[in-house]
Amino acid sequence: MTIETIYEDGDVLVINKPAGLIVHSDGRTQEPSVADWVLSKYPATVSVGEPWLSPQGEVVPRPGLVHRLDRTTSGIMVIAKTQEAFQFLKKQFQERSVQKQYEAFVYGHTKEDAGIIEAEIGRTKNKPRKWIASFAYGKKRAAVTKWRVLGRYKDAESGEALSYMEVCPKTGRTHQIRVHLKAIHHPIICDHLYAPKKACLLGFQRPALHARTLTFTLLGDETKTLEAPLPDDFTHALHLLGRMNRGV
Question: Any residues with CB less than 8 A from the CB of 86 and at least 6 apart, and which?
Answer without folding.
Answer: 48, 49, 64, 66, 80
